[in-house]
Amino acid sequence: MTVKLYCFGESGNAYKATLTLELSGLEWEPVFVDFFNGESRSPAFRELNPMGEVPVMIDGDVTLSQSGVIQDYVSSKSGKLGGRSANERREILRWQFWDNHKMSSVAGNTRFLMNFLPEDKRPAEVIDFNQARLKSAYKVLEGELAERNWLVGDAITLADISCCGYLYYPEPFGFDRAEWPAIDAWLTRISETPGWKHPYDLMPGSPADRA
Ligand SMILES: N[C@@H](CCC(=O)N[C@@H](CS)C(=O)NCC(=O)O)C(=O)O
């Protein structure tokens, strides 16, 4: 059965789920959510996910939200990307929680404020505050990746896919690859994984559609 993944191209959280699906080899298809016209706030979408968030996955009678949980489901089902031991699995979870809390949520909000809000509504102080928080997160990531090729173990895992969720997007949000050499090399390594795709090539919808 084909897994359905509710997503839109601009969503780094959906990218984590779709890239995991793509690299896992499971059969899947995207279902476009018209986020910028309010679809994720509609009653129909809230039926699907009362949290009102993208991504959502449906596989037969299993419906899941939260990118990390979808990643975990896909990894369990495919036997891929989930680490080689219980210890590695816990390490992956550490990175997923850290990413969701300290990096992706701040990156996603900052990118939204800087690019998708009308210019006269962009709150400069909030953006500055968020960018300082992000810099601390990049420092953590840079420090770890200066020591090794992958966040957990010796191969790409869900941890890498979670943490890279926002880092390939071209819209500015306070991340410049050139300033972070270990992160830069790691992003290149991930993008050289067979089957890798850029978010705008993997999911429907991009800023170009709304230009
Ligand atoms: N922790 C969640 C975050 C999901 C999330 O914030 N998704 C955004 C799109 S990238 C969303 O749907 N936001 C709607 C809202 O916050 O109202 C995950 O990893 O799936």
TrEMBL record:
Gene3D superfamilies: 1.20.1050.10, Glutaredoxin. CDD domains: GST_N_4. Residues 1-82 form the GST N-terminal domain. Residues 85-211 form the GST C-terminal domain. It comes from the Bacteria. Pfam families: GST_C, GST_N. PANTHER family: GLUTATHIONE S-TRANSFERASE-RELATED, HYPOTHETICAL GLUTATHIONE S-TRANSFERASE LIKE PROTEIN. Belongs to the GST superfamily. This is Glutathione S-transferase. The lineage of its organism: Bacteria, Pseudomonadati, Pseudomonadota, Alphaproteobacteria, Rhodobacterales.
